[in-house]
Amino acid sequence: MTRRISILGATGSVGISGVDLIRRDLDRYQVVALTGGRNIARLAQQARDLRAEIAVTAHDDLLGELRAALEGSGTIAAAGREALIEAAARPADWVLSAIVGAAGLAPGLAALAQGGVLALANKESLVCAGALLRQAGKAAGATILPVDSEHSALFQALQGETLDSVKDVTITASGGAFRDWPLERLAAATVAEASTHPNWAMGQRITIDSASMFNKAMEVIEAREFFGIGPDRIKVLVHPESIIHAVVSHHDGGSIAHLGAPDMRHAIGYALNWPERRPLPVAALDLAALGSLTFRQPDERRWPALRLAREVMAAGGAAGAVFNAAKEQALDDFIAGRIRFTDMAPRVEATLAALAGQPGFGIDPASLDEVHHWDALSRERTAA
Ligand code: NAD
Ligand code: MG
Predict the structure, then answer these.
(1) What pLDDT is recorded for position 201?
(2) Is the CATH number of domain 3-146 1.10.287.610?
(3) Ligand 1 pocket check for 102: Cβ under 6 Å
(4) I need a surface site. Which of 267, 272, 337, 357 has the fewest CB within 10 A?
(5) Where in the chain is the domain with CATH 1.10.1740.10?
(6) Residue 125 alpha carbon, nearest atom of ligand 1
């Protein structure tokens, strides 16, 4: 039986990897919806290659261009936020959510409502609305599978285990572009310098978030949301080689690590084939060639975002939505040259402190509107 598949954010770094896996095995799949942003040529090419039912750009003004690019292909063209949510809600067995930012939340919820599998790369939606996503998934009988490499690694290492026996879990971080920079140089770091990653080829936003460790901070919260593990049992370890992605340590002294080449097609493919494992086009691990793997404790003076993540988890309620939106705004401001690299964390921290006194801050957002309320307040408070 062919499985119906959709990819939200198909034109991005994770989306392209997802499209690559589907293209190699096209007989097994019926591609429903592909969505993208401004790169219409890529979106149209993907839709043709995968014979998608519908292709959607998030931008209304690009509908004409998308229509023209899809002429004669049999794929429907659509544009805009509403169209994107409608496309996500088209019946599908498996949906990859690979949009970047809080913009992925509404389409992710629409996909979940169908009760299939939501393969979630869009960690921002879990950080800003973890409780809402879980409830929506439960109500629809849907399954949410992790696609972030560390969380896929944890999920795999936890197969057959119960959380009671787990002492703690560790997710690794490469340390990003500024791992070895002298601390006093960080204030002068440029956008171009922050946009290079030692091991992974990713979208610009997550690459800069890797340099600041806001990405890892988000992932600690993501781990709490996915696995229900208390914040004090989630650790971060700097591992420059990015070969071990996560470790589960048990009370009996045994630890189970997940290793693999830094290639997102493994985590995406695992979620695609779950609960089976099938061959994937991922390089085999050659430990002898690697020779050694190294580790160090993260320095919270270099990466204050890690401390903020713990504060967000301790606060609960709307703190995740505020944190994510403040981080997105601070990142926009850094990319636009309005603030320095080292200004991002203090700005996020100031917004969290300022909004913590607002009525309802301690309560989990229970609807998309409530998430948007906190998101908008947070961006406004953070904007440079
Ligand atoms: P990217 O910037 O390369 O791609 C983002 C995709 O989302 C594109 O298709 C873009 O058109 C679309 N998009 C952007 N803004 C949108 C909006 N407002 N509305 C609708 N669509 C929009 O990003 P990426 O690196 O592929 O990351 C995607 C998600 O996966 C992020 O949540 C990221 O944190 C997560 N993730 C990425 C990697 C990686 O290796 N790149 C690894 C783990 C997790
Ligand atoms: Mg990750």
Answers:
(1) 87
(2) no
(3) no
(4) 357
(5) 316-384
(6) 32
